[in-house]
User: What shape does this take?
Amino acid sequence: MKYYLLFTICFAISIQSVSQEIYGSKDVKKQKIDVVYDYSCLEFDDDYGTNKTITTLGDLTRDIQDGIMDINGGKFSVNDQMELGDYLLENFKKEFTINNNGYQHKKLTRILKDLVSRLANPKGIKYKIHYVEDSEMGLFTIVGGHIFMPSGFYEFLETDSEIAVVLSHEIAHNELGHTSKYFEKLFIAKNMGIPFEIAEFLISVEEGLLTSFDQKQEAAADLFGIDIVYPTGYSKCSSIKLWERMSKEEGDSNAIENLLRSHPYGKVRATCLENHLENNYNYNCNF
Assistant: This one.
């Protein structure tokens, strides 16, 4: 009887430990912040210097835009972002079939909550995941912490670790301020007296022409994301396996095509993540 009681106590302690690890506690392990993001990995053989050009011009453009935003008071508060996100969500509900009642949504919510609990310096965004019945749409996030997981992409992901990798990437876009940039530009245009329709058109043209400038931001989201995943129980190397698998559908790297891409090639992203784990965590993924 006493052995049974001892087993029951140990089991209860284990369950409590797992529960704290998943749902958050004072002792939950946080992301490492003393890391170095190295973007030289974005360069690949025969890119003819395009990636260095993209990175340099992209940084210059963002610095200029940030300076203009600071002068014109274009920064959105977290509350502003969440209010705008809630408003946009209502429009998405009219266009897409969102199913937040199934087991898929429960799993996604559990993983999302675990990842958010790992943020070392959270902005205070209240994240919400939405399961969308769509076989073609890609995973994406909007301002205010709303993340949309399409059914087709959900089925493509093979493990909870791969789900954690892609969700952490979307969290990173919010935490790094990438999702609010578009709306901050609209806000500045309004302050400058530019009509909304004209501002929206000009910003869309700019983003279309300079789409490759987003590659560094995508890489930053990958690296920030893996920093969130690292202290969890999910596989650290699943991100590399995932991007290598996805790269099989991309074909060979091409310098000209690279100038038109908003995201780095999958092989490049895998290399960046592998280097990041080795250089900042001394962690090797040997497959």
Summary: The radius of gyration is 21 Å. Confidence is low (pLDDT under 50) at residues 1-25.
